[in-house]
Write a sequence for this structure.
């Protein structure tokens, strides 16, 4: 294996446009994800993995036999990329011995290290960026690459004793549907890991409790020349409504365990306007308090505008904090603690300020914390991967499955 061979899967997979589509009702949400799935399946087959297939939902299931006296360990990564930024026409560029300076892409745009000082941390390392005006796709093709390198190592080293291993590559994680068709009995793992984070020195077993809220406002529209004491402008009422929510509990002003409400969409007319929010908090009680704030705002608006036609609030719950699962079964956490100790690596547990397929896996019977990939600045054109950290994750996975 040459020095760059560990990146061969990554550099190939990021060239596949696999952006999911939140507006699509198909499964997976975009057919182009299937193209990558078929490529991965072929790679698994070429490596000699006999038990692997794509199901009707575009997911890849694979199993690698190991010591039957040991529990099965699962690994997961997702094939789609974020809706936030295009992943079409990715041109990966490997920079050896990065010098810490700003990077001029071939497409003409600049990655300014003054805006993204995290790059300076990796002077002397080998990094991968996208030379096109796209995201790189390391989220989560870096995770797929790490797992594929593990598979290649195990197949190439039959004397390496290891746990039985179950693999699952999913679609549509970025739009919250990645775990919709997860079958814990089919996965048949005692515990698993999503390989979908950033730093290899961080693991996560806590995530936000999540809800979404739609606020539907029916105003009264009339010709503006005749509007005095008659018009009730739904757009302005929507603005008033949002202003009643705590201005400090928004994503741009919170961190760590601090939850938030986030206005994701506002659309409408004088007569009808709709606000869409996501609500997040690690603490279930605090999540409910944030939801209550919406009903308080509704009461104030209705009092201020007694002639308002209608203001309806609809609340939906999306996923829960998987921490409660690990309070009952911490096997997966103990395993990685031991692995990091053996490798003499520092491990920090950091809560996820978002969701993870692992949360749903956990509540469906397979405790699944999240591990890193060595990639950063996800969901945009400044995304990059650090080869040395990507390779470290391969070594960590080898130690996890080692008998």
């Amino acid at each position: 294996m040459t020095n760059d061979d560990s990146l061969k899967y990554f550099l190939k997979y990021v060239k596949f446009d696999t952006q999911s589509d939140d507006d699509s009702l198909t499964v997976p949400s975009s057919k182009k994800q299937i193209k990558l799935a078929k490529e991965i399946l072929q790679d698994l087959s070429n490596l000699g993995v006999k038990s692997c297939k794509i199901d009707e939902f575009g997911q890849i299931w694979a199993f690698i036999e190991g010591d039957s006296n040991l529990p099965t360990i699962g690994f997961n990564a997702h094939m789609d990329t974020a809706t936030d930024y295009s992943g079409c026409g990715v041109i990966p560029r490997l920079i050896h011995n990065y010098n810490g300076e700003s990077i001029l892409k071939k497409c003409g745009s600049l990655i300014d290290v003054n805006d993204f000082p995290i790059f300076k941390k990796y002077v002397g390392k080998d990094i991968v960026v996208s030379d096109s005006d796209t995201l790189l796709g390391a989220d989560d093709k870096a995770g797929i690459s790490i797992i594929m390198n593990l598979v290649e190592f195990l197949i190439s080293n039959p004397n390496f004793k290891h746990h039985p291993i179950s693999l699952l590559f999913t679609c549509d994680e970025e739009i919250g549907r990645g775990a919709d068709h997860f079958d814990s009995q089919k996965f048949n793992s005692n515990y698993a890991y999503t390989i979908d984070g950033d730093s290899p020195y961080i693991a996560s077993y806590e995530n936000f409790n999540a809800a979404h809220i739609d606020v539907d406002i029916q105003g009264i529209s009339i010709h503006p020349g005749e509007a005095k004491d008659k018009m009730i402008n739904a757009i302005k009422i929507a603005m008033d409504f949002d202003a009643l929510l705590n201005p400090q509990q928004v994503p741009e002003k919170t961190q760590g365990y601090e939850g938030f409400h986030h206005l994701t969409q506002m659309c409408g007319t004088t007569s009808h306007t709709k606000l869409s929010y996501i609500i997040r908090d690690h603490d279930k009680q605090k999540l409910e308090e944030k939801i209550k704030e919406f009903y308080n705002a509704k009461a104030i608006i209705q009092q201020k505008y007694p002639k308002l036609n209608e203001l309806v609030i609809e609340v939906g719950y999306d996923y829960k904090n998987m921490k409660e699962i690990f309070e009952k079964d911490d096997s997966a956490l103990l395993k990685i603690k031991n692995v990091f100790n053996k490798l003499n690596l520092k491990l920090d547990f950091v809560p996820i300020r978002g969701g993870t397929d692992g949360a749903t896996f956990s509540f469906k019977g397979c405790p699944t914390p999240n591990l890193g990939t060595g990639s950063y600045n996800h969901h945009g054109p400044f995304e990059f991967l650090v080869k040395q950290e990507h390779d470290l994750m391969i070594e960590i996975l080898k130690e996890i499955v080692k008998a």
About this structure: The first helix runs from residue 8 to 13.
